[in-house]
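#struct-queue
[09:14] JT: dropping the first one here, sequence first, then the structure tokens:
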Amino acid sequence: MNLEAVEVDGWLKEGVTYNYWTFNRQVPGPFYRACVGDTIEVTLKNDPKSTMEHSVDFHAVTGPGGGSVLTNTAPGEQSTFTFKALKPGLYVYHCATPLVAQHIANGMYGLILIEPEGNLPSVDKEFYVMQGEIYADKPDKDKRAAFNYDKMMAEQPEHVVFNGSVDALTKHHLLKANVGETVRIFFGVGGPNLTSSFHMIGEIFDRVYNQASVTSAPLTNIQTTTVPPGGATIVDIKLEVPGEFILVDHAIARLEKGLIGKLVVQGPEQPEIFKGKSSGKVAVKH
């Protein structure tokens, strides 16, 4: 598994950029898969243009620092370590160089799936979604937003987002599927501070692998599931009707800070399940 720490100016919201710290130039970092019992070699390179040392802590690792004690890497250098995947599950990885919360808030987090023996049940489509927080000042005259330490310590983010930026999953990378398909969402919370109440408006999770445990029986017919920072879950859904289904954190005010995604489902109407007609605009008297 090859990771490169790269600090890059990226799209935060319409007309505004932010200096993200990334694994492989993306937020979240790459989604990795392995099988229980595998031996995994991790190489972390730190871009020569970086201003900071960076590292990686895999929650899937059994060993000091999750690998971070062996990968604290200066700009222009690289580090390597190996670990054996002893326990299956869906695990967060993140940078663990101080200030750890700053490195995570700037985008250095991702997920790794350690498949159980026999693997998870098959589905038609899989999606990778992570929730994170952006602690930023208001944009300057050049439309650049800078990191704000005080907001992070007060746990008051300017934005809460799916997959790194405002509108990432509404304009740039819509999730798409078809009526009749089964979809699986690998969902994690990079944080660094806020717990998610993950919910899909207009759908019910058929199976929830609670706390991303793949060795326990999944919960069934769940409306909202709780995922802590540094935690994950897996949800499966059978798509019964077409339309737009909205992904949110049901701490719903966070929607106003940018935390929204869409699953667009195409296919024939299913009037025996859902039908109706909008009455149009409602006149409101003041």
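[09:21] JT: and here's the second one, same format:
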Amino acid sequence: MEAIYYEDDVPAQWSEYYKANVEFFDVLGSPGGAAKLGEIDHDHPIVAALPPQNGA
């Protein structure tokens, strides 16, 4: 299973999520490690609109 792509190699079906990631971190800033930020209390609207997912 592949989950990480170079920016230019993101499949078209996932491009919306690439944009959401960019916009999310534009607001949040670069975390420099998620542990430094702690829990983040919001999601990008594209992610928030997804149905609940079962753990994989």
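[09:30] RK: nice, looked through the second one.
[09:31] RK: Residues 15-28 form the longest helix (14 residues).
[09:31] JT: good to know. The helical segments are 15-28, 34-37, 45-48.
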